[in-house]
Design brief:
The chain has helices at residues 32-43, 92-101, 160-170, 220-229; strands spanning 22-28, 46-50, 56-61, 64-69, 82-88, 105-106, 111-113, 117-123, 129-135, 150-156, 174-177, 183-188, 191-197, 210-216, 233-241, 244-250, 256-261. By secondary structure, the protein is an alpha+beta fold. It has one domain (1-268): 2,3-Dihydroxybiphenyl 1,2-Dioxygenase, domain 1, CATH 3.10.180. The strands form two sheets. Strands 1, 2, 3, 4, 5, 6, 7, 8 and 9 form a nine-stranded mixed sheet that branches. It has an eight-stranded mixed sheet with strand order 11-12-13-10-14-17-16-15, covered by helices on one side. The longest helix is centred in the N-terminal third of the chain and has 12 residues, at 32-43. 46% of the residues are buried.
């Protein structure tokens, strides 16, 4: 498999999350207990289980929220295991309409999650799924600087020009192409917050098309070993890039994700 070309991820969680930027990441899986054990082994996550929301688990790192792990979906619904990225929305109804106007799909919603906020699942025109989140009392992963924090996210597509147009309009972002690469960084001002990669063909065979999430780990090689020891797989062995060291992994149920130490190669 060809190694991905990525841009420079943020090294720590932002102190503010602006509209259009990642605010939450969530795992859907048919085996939530197995998933909780797996990611706890990798990142040291602890969990707060909410019976009010069907056993939804909020993962914490260093006392701050890191990610969510959903209960199994109802019978008859897609039970595949995958990570879902959510972008902050100030007006979720208007943003869902904007998704449709730009050629994407907005599923039924939005759904209010108690006093936490509202969620809406949508897709871009190519079918890559992501979420919109209008926050109330949840706060997302604001301030999380611990292991397993989200440090980057990118969408893998076969039509990067269309994807750049879609996401730059929806998220009110500028797009900057990396020299010599089919890769664009989405920015608000000078701050990059996500990427668009035109290399989907490298990932579709292992069910890793669409959005890829990157989690921080201090020791990429050790985390890759721990993934295998706990029932996961290594899709791309640890390797160095100008933006750090990374590896592409799956959890025991097949959800694909990347672990990364976003430091210059050789600096760890």
């Amino acid at each position: 498999m060809t190694q991905t070309q990525t841009t420079a991820p943020v090294a720590s969680s932002p102190m503010t999350i602006c509209a259009g930027e990642p605010i939450w990441v969530e795992l859907t899986t048919p085996t939530p207990q197995q998933a909780r054990d797996f990611y706890a082994a990798l990142f040291g996550w602890t969990y707060q289980i909410s019976e009010e929301f069907g056993g939804y688990a909020t993962a914490h790192s260093g006392g701050n929220k890191a990610a969510g792990i959903s209960p199994p979906p109802p019978a008859g619904m897609d039970a595949s295991s995958q990570w879902l990225i959510y972008f902050d929305s100030e007006d979720i109804v208007a943003d869902a309409q904007h998704v449709k106007a730009l050629g994407g799909t907005a599923f039924e919603g939005p759904v209010r999650i108690g006093t936490q906020g509202q969620a809406h699942h949508v897709t871009d025109p190519s079918g890559a799924m992501f979420g919109l989140w209008q926050d109330d009392q949840h706060g997302g992963f604001l301030g999380n600087d611990g292991p397993g924090r989200l440090v980057w996210a990118e969408v893998n597509t076969r039509d990067s020009a269309s994807a750049v147009d879609f996401y730059s309009q929806l998220l009110n972002a500028d797009a900057q192409q990396l020299p010599g690469a089919d890769y664009h960084q989405l920015l608000h001002g000078e701050t990059g917050f996500a990427g668009v990669s035109g290399n989907a063909q490298n990932w579709e065979a292992v069910n890793a098309g669409g959005w890829m999430v990157y989690f921080f780990t201090e020791d990429v090689d050790r985390t890759a070993q721990m993934a295998v020891q706990n029932g996961g797989k290594v899709l791309v062995a640890p390797f160095d890039m100008p933006y750090g060291r990374m590896a592409v992994l799956t959890d025991p149920a097949g959800a694909v994700f990347t672990v990364m130490n976003p430091q210059p190669a050789g600096a760890y």
